[in-house]
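Open question from group meeting: does this chain pack into something compact, or does most of it stay loose? Before anyone orders reagents, we agreed to write out a predicted structure and look at it together. Recording both the input and the output here so the notebook holds the full record.
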Amino acid sequence: MMNIAEKLGKFFCVAYKARQKKTSLQKKKVIYIESTVWFVLSVSQLMLTANYDLKAEDVFVKELSPLVVTAHQEYVPQGQIGGSVTIIERESIESMAQTNIVDALRSTPGVSIVQSGGAGGSVSTFIRGANGEHTLVLIDGVEANNPATPGGSFDLANITTDGVERIEILRGPQSLMYGSNAIGGVIHIITKKGAKENKLSLTALGGSYKTTAGSSTLVLSDDKKYLTLSASGSKTQSNISSADRRDGNLERDPYSNCSVSAVGGVKVSSSDLEFNVRKVVSEAEIDRAAGVGGDDPNRKLSNDVFVGSVSAHSELFNDLIGQRLRFEYTEHELTDVNEADISAPLDFIDSRFQGYRTRASLIEVFKPVEWFRFDVGGEYENESANSQYFSYSQFGEYKDELSPNSTSNRGVFSEVLIEPEWLGLLSIGRRYDDHSRFGGQDTWRITASRPVPLLESRIHSSIGTGFKAPTVTQLFSSFGNTSLKAETSKGWDFGYEFRIPSSKISIDTTYFRNQFRNLIQFDPTSFILQNIDNAETQGIEVSVRAPLFTKFEWLGFFTYLDTEDKTTGSSLLRRASREARSVFSYMATKRLKINFNTQWVGPRRDRNFTIFPAEEVSLGSYVLFGINGSYELSKGVSATLAADNLLDKEYQEVYGFGAPGARIMVGMKIDTNLSSLK
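Structure tokens returned:
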């Protein structure tokens, strides 16, 4: 019987030797070898361990894992999922005093966050090296990506953690369940849906850069209905300059944000009816450009986002048949306005981008026996967008307008989940989409997870494909191309999660590999967008959870990433080849908890776009230290402290744009049990 190490060693040897070949036929053989070896590794390990007697008390991954809804659109224990998934729980968010989704995501293996400037600065989220627009963002199951942006991405800079129960991050192609946009991965933000007790939570924060923030969350529930209402607001009056101050940019760029959300549900007979809405309005002052002379005293970027849905979920014949029907609506409005001023009398911008999405989906679930489930579903989606852009400068006037246009997509999919006691969990699924512009697209996914009780460990693996449809802007704008095809990806991973016997120390190591084809890029020869680029990424993700003593716990995350633009042979921009995060927690008393965190980001490639043609530059590595904690003053009342970048390190995530220096935030949280007031 070969062990895991021997199998992986042989696999890497085969893959490495095969990749030395450069012909088209040999590249196809490489793909075939990798896919075959992945299948052999997964199935052989499943069969070799099939003779173990899996008792309930042995399968720790099944009994102790939190439930995940994103992977299969149905609650499944995290320890049974074959794909790579990370959960950020509410407890962790509060413990780290994180007020923004971006801050929470920085602790996720395989996820790189890049922000242009300080609070409110544009954010790109790279999952396993994929482009930012290849990440699908869901808010309570609703697709939030903006159809009006050129790539159809979603800017997470303006989403706060208020009312959020947990965040699920699924890495790798996920088009089987979610269609377009999910070729790199999925980030799912989930709002709290009721509680055992009716509760009102109030928070207030203040600190560096003249920042003030406050939020309130009301949770009401009983046996048949629930309602969660949240509202928050924040303002940073003396934010850092968006363009780096080391280039002489000293003007501060304020930022403000206001968001409200509501999630509710009621049980009617055998059906659950639910709704959710979220509205986010933000305004950030930004600069005209990066680098020297980038300051602008009055350029403003405003975002107005609305997402909402209504859904019905029913179970029939003792849960033999289930149905899930959902209707979604998303609306985005982005404005970028820069009036001429004394410092730049010839600079003027007035631009507006509007995007809309409607989506309807139906999923039928058949579960004739406990260990077998068959899902079949269909969806219809319509995206529309329009934009107006006008500017003048020393080079003259420029005007571009995208008249209202739309695209539609119809998709059907099916998935089988098999879970006999001797196997673990195996899922196999396939999907077909019919797009109004480029036609049909097939995608598929296979995942496997197998506990190894003898070693208190498990293996997990997945392989699948994804696609991203060209956006309305990419198709119909002045630089668009109605002949564009879908961008596609193929990715697989293989991981081993190990728990040290007689302890709670766990180590999860995963190797992944992705191939991206038909990437849409601007063609300087034709001056329109074309499917002209390909890329590959591969790497290793490691996460460690180690309760050291009664009062101590250490969390560690490490990502190694190797990327290649197949056209140029260079690594992809703004992706660090190595990133690490360490969080050391100390429960000093029952009331006091302190976290010491360290983040290290390796060097990255970027370009200096302030000159033409743009020159390649290198962004240096950096280390950030922070400390945060909470102290329970009395029952339901606690004080929080968060200090980031303690050494006031100067660094850049995007060339020419600044990053926050040392900052401290102090706050107060009050939780009131409304049930006890009756």
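Observations to bring back to the group:
The longest strand covers residues 396-418.
The domain at 49-677 is CATH 2.40.170.20 (Maltoporin; Chain A).
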